[in-house]
């Protein structure tokens, strides 16, 4: 059982390395933003596998926290790319 | 150019309450499991920042009509009031007390005065972070 989890962890780390390549050499900015979003998802799965390995449930809050922060960060980046400003003063004027 | 982002606004209406509930959970869980006032306050700030991203600054100010600097002051007042309240009972500064109470919905609950201090930290973190966000994001 632990062998499978170690293999899964190695696969997740390999995908993180592939995402790092996309973040470093992404041709455009949206490529890098999407790679960062997927980086958050793979980080979540890596933490889940690590918490199984350590045999503790104390990392569950960290998983939800990274999900929330990754979502907010991706929304902020996409709004910056689309509109050029992140927080508008008045939307209807 | 007017952009109509219905998907973001509808998702923000739902996700805001999920993040706020998670923030309150992580605030109350701070005594026995990881969490506490700081992380809870930052998560609540994240929820308000999501509303700021989906809507605009004026809508959120109408929704939460607080001056966030006063929120900082209330948080500091809670913390210092808890810390100096122990002087009244002739024990050293910052001495905490707890007792078991029977609450109608929760059953036997242990209430601790460290939670008041943590509520102060929560309010200070929310107020400081929201003041920074509003001061930076306001003028463009």
Your description of this structure?
- The complex is a heterodimer of chains A (93) and B (140).
- Chain A is an all-alpha fold.
- Chain A contains 3 helices and no strands.
- The longest helix of chain A has 26 residues, at 29-54.
- Chain B has one domain (6-137).
- In chain B, helix 1 runs antiparallel to helix 2, helix 2 packs parallel to helix 5 and helix 4 runs antiparallel to helix 5.
- The mean pLDDT of chain B is 88.
- Chains A and B meet through helix 3 of A and helix 1, helix 2, helix 3 and helix 5 of B.
- From the N-terminal CA to the C-terminal CA of chain A, the straight-line distance is 59 Å
Shape of chain B: globular
Q: Can you tell me the number of structural domains of chain B?
A: 1
What is the number of E strands of chain A? Answer: 0
Report strand % of chain A: under 5%
Largest sheet of chain B, if any?
2 strands, antiparallel
Low-confidence spans of chain A: none
Question: Mean pLDDT score of chain A, rounded?
Answer: 91
- CA-CA gap between termini of chain B: 17 Å
SSE sequence of chain A, one letter per element: HHH
Average pLDDT of chain B: 88
Tell me about the biggest sheet of chain A? none
Low-confidence stretches of chain B: none
* Structural class by secondary-structure content of chain A: mainly alpha
Q: Kindly provide the radius of gyration of chain B, computed on alpha-carbon positions and rounded to a whole number of angstroms.
A: 18 Å
Number of strands of chain B: 2
Helical run tally of chain A: 3
Structural class of the helix and strand makeup of chain B? mainly alpha
What's the shape of chain A?
Answer: flat
